[in-house]
Amino acid sequence: YAKEADLIVPFLSPDYVGREWPTTEWRVIRDLLKSGQGDRIMPVKLAAADLAGLHSIDGYLDAAEMDPEQVADLILERLAAG
Fold it and tell me: What are the Cα distances from residue 41, in Å, to 10, 26, 34?
């Protein structure tokens, strides 16, 4: 996952925090950020979520006011650019 994925797109919401898989995924994301591989991560914020390590100055897609097709198109654009 951390080594083979071209782009990691975590969908962040209040439910993301404290669950088993997201906790593991977030550890991988933080490790990639620390090693300078932030270009492989595209966080998508679905609703207000407070995540340790994600700050207001960090880049993320705020999808709260977007429809799913818009979000999908932006993810595809990011993959094509990478």
Answer: 8, 11, 12
The rounded Cα 14 to chain-centroid distance in angstroms is 14
pLDDT value of position 52: 65
- 35 close to 19: Cβ distance less than 8 angstroms: no
Question: Which residues touch 62 (CB under 8 Å, ≥6 apart)?
Answer: 45
Report how far residue 24's alpha carbon sits from residue 20's, in angstroms, rounded to the nearest whole number: 6
> What distance in Å separates the CA atoms of residue 29 and residue 62, rounded to the nearest whole number?
18
Q: Is 11 helix (H, G, I), strand (E, B) or coil?
A: strand
Rounded CA separation 71/63 (Å): 7
Tell me the pTM: 0.82
- Say if residue 24's pLDDT is above 80: yes
